[in-house]
Amino acid sequence: MASTTARLDLDGNTINPMTICMIGAGGFIGSHLCEKLMQETPHTVLAVDVYNDKIKHLLEPDSLPWAGRIQFHRLNIKNDSRLEGLIKCSDLTINLAAICTPADYNTRPLDTIYSNFIDALPVLKYCSENNKRLIHFSTCEVYGKTIGSYLPKDSPLRQDPAYYILKEDVSPCIFGSVEKQRWSYACAKQLIERLIYAEGAENGLEFTIVRPFNWIGPRMDFIPGIDGPSEGVPRVLACFSNNLLRREPLKLVDGGESQRTFVYIKDAIEAVLLMIENPGRASGHIFNVGNPNNEVTVRQLAEMMTKVYSKVSGEDSIETPTIDVSSKEFYGEGYDDSDKRIPDMTIINKQLGWNPKTSLWDLLESTLTYQHKTYAEAIKQAIAKPLAN
Ligand SMILES: NC(=O)c1ccc[n+]([C@@H]2O[C@H](COP(=O)([O-])OP(=O)(O)OC[C@H]3O[C@@H](n4cnc5c(N)ncnc54)[C@H](O)[C@@H]3O)[C@@H](O)[C@H]2O)c1
Ligand SMILES: O=C(O)[C@H]1O[C@H](OP(=O)(O)OP(=O)(O)OC[C@H]2O[C@@H](n3ccc(=O)[nH]c3=O)[C@H](O)[C@@H]2O)[C@H](O)[C@@H](O)[C@@H]1O
Predict the structure, then answer these.
(1) I need a surface site. Which of 1, 86, 223, 286 has the fewest CB within 10 A?
(2) How far apart are the CA of 24 and the centre of ligand 1, in A?
(3) Are 284 and 207 a contacting pair, CB within 8 Å?
(4) Nearest ligand, CA of residue 260?
(5) Which atom of ligand 1 is the closest one to the Cα of 95?
(6) Of 31, 338, 53, 306, whose CA–CA distance to 183 is shortest?
(7) What angle do helix axes 184-203 and 109-116 make, rounded to 10 degrees?
(8) Which atom, in ligand 1's list, is nearest to the CA of 263?
(9) Is this complex's ipTM strictly greater than 0.95?
(10) Rounded distance from Cα 42 to ligand 2 centre (Å)
């Protein structure tokens, strides 16, 4: 419940209720952010998306305590003149809208580039022209590969953090060749970051850029054949959840050697709320938001998810829990990968005093409990159906 006592920012000033135009509010991050804003703050959200399934529980029934503070606007920002009006009547715009599943980057590069660059242009224009604050969601993928990945395999420098820690104001953006269309997303995100930064520098736009590092939790993506297309390939959490639910081996792309740091969505949302409510500390900054303590290879992630799922479902794991698959087979031509992603936390610590709290085991336990409760029965029925026919 939103508290009735005044909310204070990090400098002890009263936070006034604001109206937030949240574009992409119906997605994974948007649904958690809407939930947080409704349950814990007095702010109003104009929720813009083409879908609202993930925020339905916040929109209905009319008797919800926050009724009237969240409005859903079903619109596609590619071609809807209502967008400018919504931005104009808000204090802050948060842009989350994007195509952001790697399976699309090399197979639908045009849609990916349009979604992440061209479609974000009007949002930026309307914020800049109307002097509205913008929080734009970029990605840790803008760093691409680490400098260390180009060193010889046995180089001792690979162990030196200077060669792999990703730092907002220092690290370069290293992408593969244009033929490696995996980088279409990262490159589009990088260009929109540069444009936002330039609008800030030349025209005084008040902006914050967020670079999420593998945020995971309930409601991420979809389970193929249940609430998404059977042939669709979501991000790794949903791919592995789907395999576990169906008692199939988890597929390790190119040996599962890539490394990632995973952060719990609920920790990450705390960071976004600090940005929303502390504009003086957040504006003009680019923030890494991740958990440097939760690093694993994809193979280790698969092993941990298998153990956690056994615990939460009460089922033994299958005899062959993982299989190797080539990236060409799994994602098609033009796939490439980030080798390692550890966020430097200096800037977000200094500006907002934020730190992630949840260990990888704990976040997987709560997320897989949700996946099991939400999908296990539906999967059982889907598997039983063809046999019954
Ligand atoms: N989840 C992560 O860990 C992560 C990591 C890095 C970056 N990001 C970035 O954060 C943002 C949100 O990610 P997410 O994980 O919530 O993704 P998501 O796909 O769950 O949410 C994106 C939402 O935007 C909506 N959308 C897309 N195009 C639209 C359009 N033209 N008009 C209206 N709505 C549109 C989609 O319907 C979807 O609901 C994206 O910009 C993504 O690139 C996320
Ligand atoms: O989440 C992020 O911070 C960013 O990175 C993600 O990219 P990536 O981490 O590569 O995407 P995942 O689908 O989560 O894959 C992680 C790793 O698991 C591997 N993988 C994925 C799925 C699978 O079934 N098996 C498997 O081995 C992938 O090859 C990759 O190495 C996406 O690009 C974005 O959502 C986002 O911008």
Answers:
(1) 1
(2) 6
(3) yes
(4) 2
(5) 41
(6) 338
(7) 20
(8) 3
(9) yes
(10) 35
CA distances from 65 to 40, 169, 349 (A): 11, 42, 33
Measured from the Cβ of residue 60, the count of other Cβ atoms closer than 10 Å reads 12
Q: Mind listing the pLDDT tens digit of every residue in the chain (389 residues)? A: 555 678 999 999 999 999 999 999 999 999 999 999 999 999 999 999 999 999 999 999 999 999 999 999 999 999 999 999 999 999 999 999 999 999 999 999 999 999 999 999 999 999 999 999 999 999 999 999 999 999 999 999 999 999 999 999 999 999 999 999 999 999 999 999 999 999 999 999 999 999 999 999 999 999 999 999 999 999 999 999 999 999 999 999 999 999 999 999 999 999 999 999 999 999 999 999 999 999 999 999 999 999 999 999 999 999 999 999 999 999 999 999 999 999 999 999 999 999 999 999 999 999 999 999 999 999 999 998 765 54
Q: Is the CB of residue 51 below 6 angstroms from any atom belonging to ligand 1?
A: yes
Closest Cα to atom 1, ligand 2: which residue?
Answer: 214
235 Cα–ligand 2 center, Å: 5
Comparing CA positions, the residue from 60, 15, 176, 48 lying closest to residue 119 is 48
Tokens in use for 137? 């969601």
| Helix extents (H) in the chain | 28-40, 56-59, 82-88, 102-105, 109-116, 121-129, 184-203, 236-245, 265-277, 279-282, 298-313, 327-331, 346-352, 360-388
Q: Is the distance from the beta carbon of residue 358 to the nearest atom of ligand 1 less than 6 Å?
A: no
Residue 375 amino acid letter: Y
Catalytic-role residue among 105, 185, 335, 375: 185
What is the pTM (predicted TM-score) of this model? 0.98
Task: Give φ, ψ of 78 to 5 degrees.
Answer: -60, -35
DSSP 3-state of 287: strand
Token code pair at residue 104 = 């699309």
Encoding tokens for residue 323?
Answer: 């299989």
Whether residue 252 has its Cβ less than 6 Å from ligand 2:
yes
Q: Which of ligand 2's atoms lies nearest the C-alpha of 240?
A: 24
- Does ligand 1 come within 6 angstroms of the Cβ of 121? no
Cβ 212 under 6 angstroms from ligand 2: yes
